[in-house]
């Protein structure tokens, strides 16, 4: 069922989107402020994917770049809409709706920004079901919808169209080159598709899930209940039903660098008990990719690895990680459509150069008797 | 007057274009082979700019990249035509002719390649009047025609459109980023313009001048005459009337590196007499930029600095420079439209970070009494 989103929903949505960002995806709070400013007291129509007619035309919109740069380089505001209009003009066809390509992080907000500016509705679905660092890591692509032609807009009104046919990795490679030359951030419109394609290839209801997660954390805090129980309860009725606490401890080391347009690095969370040498190591490329507890893999991409405050459950991004923070690390299962062999080829461990095989978080690291 | 160019003209044209490449511009011999292969025994119509009607539509075509890479990465052949077709489609308008953006080096050949493939005529004019390393260094831009939108094609059929409005430097910056990610070479269509604009902004008759230069050098050799006298005689009736011999000697040092998509470096030519410490230092960025004789500037961009074999006058590119070569270095004056204050801002010394002011080669380095 379609519904209306207002500015009052944005803080909860931002919190939930940060959780689904699994450490990356860019800070949605900056995007939230931009949406609030443009939206005012109006509302945005959020379309349930099942409500789309097959011949509707949907153009997803997003921001691309390293999250570390996105924090420092606040968009002018018009860029994503300019990318959408550029792609419409190129295709000679007007969009009936926009949609996120990524439900985690700032890209939960960019389509709302476009909606607030244009009046277009936003489809409650996305192509990552979380955040991923590359434009080719999309369920859209996995199930046959390609990203090209992609339109990219810069803050000085630069407009670029990239068409690499079926080669989404080459599209990502060229668009990343432009984004780096634009100073580290670009706004894009890509993966234009029909309503039928959305229903077939998108991860459904991820905006409403992000909103529900952010809200349940807030309400639990207000009611002095455990936000962790609230998270588990909320997820139990979604396509992401399994949550595991992977570790509780404090951050004892963070190493990060921005290279080739990505934020890469490692974080160590150690047991609070100083006599224990129990520890969790998390590696990330924009997003958290793999969590090893004392060397053993307990969660791996595409499952979600979320670092949150140990009491409030406030999600912490990789660029927000600081020495001494007391955190919990959650593993959350992803939908089955994100765990198929073809999906794992696009955004599973090997896509990030990891040699460890995918292992579902609900059973990973369980020692066999 | 318009004329027909055949495969028989290509060796002379390549020689002349290498001379006008002033050390850079990419090796035209590879381009020549590609044109010969496609053209066979047909001919290409070369249109004199004065024969264009004002409302004709001209789309220039070219290759971009570092000459050092161009030698190793031979184009598939279809790329420049694909760039032209991509721009036509984007603009919704069909070209009546193509044209070089650069008359020196390989870009003398790329529009001929497009002509051989499509049957389009080629306008006898260009926007650099020589070779320059950047797409924004065009008389077109200096006199009000901008490069955007630019279409860029890659060897795997990648197509990119870049529109930076009036900002030709930003266009160059973004297109260079794509070219680097394509492996160092891209093919482009840009500076689409009317016949009236060609007549107002292009350097006229530079294809026929390159052909005449290459031919006069060959005929002089065949007649055992001095090719240097022949060059001077041929240039005397063009917009490039002044030739000076800047130095005769042998190459004693060459330092070059390929960085940021450009070939940069320095060459030293020393007097053949070992008791003399007379020497000429040439700095280049793809093309030769400045020649200093014993520290004194004797030629500076945009005037032409051409290193040629000391006897045959065969032009030598920066990547062809070798220790011990016996060479003459010629300085050739550029047309007045390339020496105006606005032209010097686009491609004069300061555009290359040189602090020395422009000084016409016909008088540069002359000591005042």
Automatic annotation (TrEMBL), chains A, B:
Record-linked InterPro entries: S-Me-THD-like_C, S-Me-THD_C_sf, S-Me-THD_N, S-Me-THD_N_sf
Q: Where is the S-Me-THD-like C-terminal domain?
A: 167-361
Ranges for domain S-Me-THD N-terminal come to 9-163
User: What superkingdom does the record give?
Assistant: Bacteria
Enumerate the Pfam families for this protein: S-Me-THD_C, S-Me-THD_N
Protein's UniProt name: DUF917 domain-containing protein
The scientific name of the source species is: Microbacterium luteolum (Aureobacterium luteolum)
Q: What is the lineage of its organism?
A: Bacteria, Bacillati, Actinomycetota, Actinomycetes, Micrococcales
């Amino acid at each position: 069922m379609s519904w209306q989103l207002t500015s009052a929903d944005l803080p909860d949505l931002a919190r939930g989107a940060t959780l689904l960002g699994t450490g990356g995806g860019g800070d949605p709070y900056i995007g939230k402020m931009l949406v609030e400013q443009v939206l005012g007291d109006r509302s945005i129509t959020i379309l349930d994917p099942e409500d789309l007619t097959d011949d509707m035309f949907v153009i997803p919109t997003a921001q691309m770049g390293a999250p570390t740069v996105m924090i420092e380089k606040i968009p002018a505001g018009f860029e994503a809409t300019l990318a959408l209009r550029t792609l419409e003009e190129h295709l000679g066809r007007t969009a009936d709706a926009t949609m996120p390509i990524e439900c985690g992080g700032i890209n939960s907000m960019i389509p709302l920004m476009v909606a607030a500016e244009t009046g277009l509705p936003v489809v409650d679905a996305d192509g990552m079901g979380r955040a991923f660092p590359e434009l080719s890591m999309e369920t859209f692509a996995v199930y046959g919808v390609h990203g090209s032609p992609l339109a990219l807009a810069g803050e000085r009104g630069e407009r670029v169209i990239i068409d690499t046919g079926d080669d989404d990795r080459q599209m990502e490679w060229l668009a990343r080159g432009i984004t780096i030359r634009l100073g580290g951030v670009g706004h894009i419109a890509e993966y234009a598709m029909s309503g039928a394609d959305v229903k077939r290839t998108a991860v459904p209801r991820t905006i409403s899930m992000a909103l529900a997660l952010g809200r349940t954390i807030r309400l639990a805090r207000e009611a002095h209940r455990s936000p962790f129980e609230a998270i588990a309860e909320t997820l139990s009725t979604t396509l992401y039903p399994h949550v595991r606490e992977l570790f509780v401890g404090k951050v004892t080391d963070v190493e990060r660098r921005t290279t080739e347009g990505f934020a890469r690095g490692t974080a160590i969370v150690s047991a609070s008990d100083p006599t224990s040498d129990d520890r969790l190591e998390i590696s990330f490329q924009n997003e958290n990719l793999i969590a090893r507890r004392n060397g053993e893999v307990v969660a791996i991409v595409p499952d979600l690895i979320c670092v949150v405050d140990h009491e409030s459950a406030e999600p912490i991004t990789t660029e927000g990680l600081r020495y001494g923070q007391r955190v919990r690390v959650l593993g959350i299962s992803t939908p089955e459509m994100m765990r198929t062999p073809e999906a794992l080829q696009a955004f599973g461990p090997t896509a990030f150069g990891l040699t460890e095989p995918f292992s579902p978080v609900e059973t990973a690291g369980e020692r066999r008797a």
